[in-house]
Design a protein that fits this description.
121 residues, mainly beta
Length: 121
Amino acid sequence: VQLQASGGGLAQAGGSLNLTCVASGSITSIDDMGWFRQAPGKERELVATISRSGTPNYAHSVKGRFTISRNNAENTVYLQMHSLKPEDTAAYYCAAKRGAPSTSRDAYEYWGQGTQVTVSS
């Protein structure tokens, strides 16, 4: 499974950005997909995950501001980010896994390259 993320960039605080991740390869084996982020000097952390059936899970820090969605027919997962804050600045990684739902970073087997999101104050 290969994951290709796109859509990062620079935004002002209070602004919006959208991320897209397209999966290819053995995609029929994928169950959950999600987004994680890593700021300099910090560990990679959960942003949001979504099951194949569309059930989302969000980190407390982004709940109400970010929306994850998924198009199984197009093997794509999206992250809409609104009301951005400087603390949202990080490299955002798309991830996917097989099997039971999980929000744990360590449970995700497949990772895309990071896409940088920078929010200025």
